[in-house]
Amino acid sequence: MKSIASGVALALAAAALGLAPGASAQSARPDPLNPKAQVPAVAYRSAFQGYRPNAAADVGSWTDANKTVHEAGGWRAYAREARQADAAPAPAPAASAPRPKGHEHH
Questions:
Q1: Which pTM does this prediction carry?
Q2: pLDDT 10s digits, 70-81
Q3: Phi-psi region of 83 (alpha: psi -120 to 50; beta: other; left: phi over 0)
């Protein structure tokens, strides 16, 4: 704990003396109030640079898709599959200490 306090004190002393890492960079910055100050050129990069539009995917015939769903058993077959995947047995809860009393009926 003592070393942390001495490290903080050392950092504060360095900042007060202008020895902080960013202290020299601040003096090299141009004066924002000087209209003739030399500043770096502004660079613009569009957010859409390199954008590629979404290519249309071949989805096939809707009648073939409906036929495939019908052969599989219709929407109920898909619902049954989803329900069976969710019905995986839950792990048994681990034995734990009894819960403290209080605020049970809220």
A1: 0.27
A2: 898 888 888 888
A3: alpha
Q: What is the radius of gyration, based on Cα positions, of the chain?
A: 34
Q: Where are the alpha helices (DSSP H) in 1-106?
A: 2-17, 23-28, 62-72, 74-86
pLDDT in tens, 17-39: 555 454 444 567 889 899 999 98
Residues 14 and 27: their CA atoms lie apart, in Å, by: 16
Here the tokens at position 32 are 């924002």
Eight-class DSSP state of 41: P
Helix 62-72 with 74-86: angle, nearest 10 deg = 60
Residue 77 tokens, joined: 């077959």
CA 81 vs CA 67, 69, 91: distances in Å:
18, 13, 21
Per-residue DSSP letter, 76: H
